[in-house]
Design brief:
Blueprint (H helix, E strand, L loop, with lengths): L24 E6 L2 E6 L7 E5 H12 L8
Antiparallel strand pairs: 1-2, 2-3
Length: about 70
Amino acid sequence: MAVTPDLSRAVWRKSRRSGGNGACVEMAAVGDVIAVRDSKNAEGPVMVLALSGWRAFVGGVRAGAFEAAG
């Protein structure tokens, strides 16, 4: 059973490479998970990943495994 982490004290961060147009995601390390949300909708849904899943995702991004939207 998945347990939702307490995000009330999460410190949310955006990439330094984010543009100023508000189309960004934010992430927060909370215990042994990473929470990800849409910066335009801070009260909206949050995706929670195990640290290993986050590392695999970031590795894929760095390796060019995903196509850019648009």
